[in-house]
Amino acid sequence: MKSSTQILVIDDEAHNRQALTLLLSHSGYQVQSAVTGEEALEIMEKKPFEIIITDLFLPGVSGIDILKRVKEDSPYTSVILITGNASAETAVEAMKEGAFDYITKPFNFEKLKVIVAKAVEKSRLVAENLYLRQQLRGKYKFDNIIGNSLPMQQVFSRLERIVNTESTILILGESGTGKELVAKAIHYNSPRKDKPFVAINCGAIPADLLESELFGHAKGAFTGAVSEKAGKFEAADKGTIFLDEIGTMPMHLQMKLLRVLQEQEIERIGTTRKVKLNVRVVSATNADLEDQVKKGQFREDLYYRLNVIPIELPPLRERREDIALLARNFLQKFCQEMDRSLMSISPAAMTALENYAWPGNVRELENLIERTVALTDSEIIEPQDLPPYIGEASGTDSVLASAPRVTESGVNMPEIIGNIERTMIQEALELSNGVKARAANLLSINRTTLVEKIKRLKIET
């Protein structure tokens, strides 16, 4: 709304100052004026302005001085400079220092109104962006990563030590352990917190497209490159880039990434022009990179470049004391999102959750709580409200623990193994939403083998 937009006009020439004040006031803006740069600085200390329109050549504190102060103290404020000197040098200097735009005397009022309207829109967008960044910083504070267990306390301790470094970080952990959450926490608690955080999943993008996504391309570099495009590295300049599933990166791109890490510069596909960057690289993998290096599937020099500071996230089964804490946190979150009164988890149901192996880790627990809140009518979650593979079997660990020991009287091994297989297949099908190919991958068996076992064990799908 124009009526809420605060504009400060600074000009030592009375007729220009009065004309601008009158014009902008009639256009619906809230306008205040100052004769000198010193007076303007005093006014700016008392109240914020979205737009500042200042003469470039002021006695004492100049328009450029005003501009520099604004950029330091109020990044959402747009500065428009007025000058009687239409030289290119003046315009270039002003824009380099961060001016939104400039106009020359005698100025065109219609043009000025258009520039002011655009500046107002930009200031609002910047202010909104700053607000969202503040919200993100709150969301990704270290204390929002939940865990009182010893393994998680060791993770927190390392995070606190590295957050202010510029070192490259490699986050290790199984799928669902929260690697991206940790990467965001590192960024939003670091000196780069006001700069971009750019994430890319290297395993989710076809190999022939990944290079363009990472490094950009020139127009005509390949079929379909109809325009020039900046890559993720350029988008992350002065901030952080998060390379998830780094172990899936093709060999030829590994070499290019190594050069980027060494030189801190990239080349878009189809050009030899080098672009200097200042990017912190945080990568993550659920693969054993050391084993991939031994097999020749991952470059050893790149591995050591990425693994300057490793952070290993423990699987949920190795921090069972955090399960109740996480479950209650997710319960509160989803009850609030679904606009229902806060539910609770019965002791028997919580025991079942704590005894389960959680192959999908924290993500699996979060998804299960969300589903349970959505489908449970009562205010207390009981074992029967949980999926059968949790409520009945309490996970693979419980099946193994309850398996009889071999004695002189013998055991029925086929039956025992069948029970274990049934439980694991049910877990894999649940995790994969019934997609047999993915379930087979989770179990490290062929899809045809899985289908045969489902038929033999009479598992409903």
TrEMBL record:
Domain (Response regulatory): residue spans on this chain: 6-120
GO molecular function, one term: ATP binding
Source organism of the structure: Geoalkalibacter subterraneus
Compartment(s) where it occurs, according to its Swiss-Prot or TrEMBL record: Cytoplasm
The name this protein goes by in its record: Fis family transcriptional regulator
Gene3D superfamilies given in the database record: 1.10.8.60, 3.40.50.2300, Homeodomain-like (1.10.10.60), P-loop containing nucleotide triphosphate hydrolases (3.40.50.300)
Residue positions where 4-aspartylphosphate is found in the record: D55
Pfam families: AAA_lid_14 (PF25601), HTH_8 (PF02954), Response_reg (PF00072), Sigma54_activat (PF00158)
InterPro entries in the record: AAA+_ATPase, AAA_lid_NorR, CheY-like_superfamily, Homeodomain-like_sf, HTH_Fis, P-loop_NTPase, Sig_transdc_resp-reg_receiver, Sigma_54_int
Superkingdom of origin organism: Bacteria
Signal peptide, first to last residue: none
Keywords for the protein's UniProt record, in alphabetical order: Activator, ATP-binding, Cytoplasm, DNA-binding, Nucleotide-binding, Phosphoprotein, Transcription, Transcription regulation, Two-component regulatory system
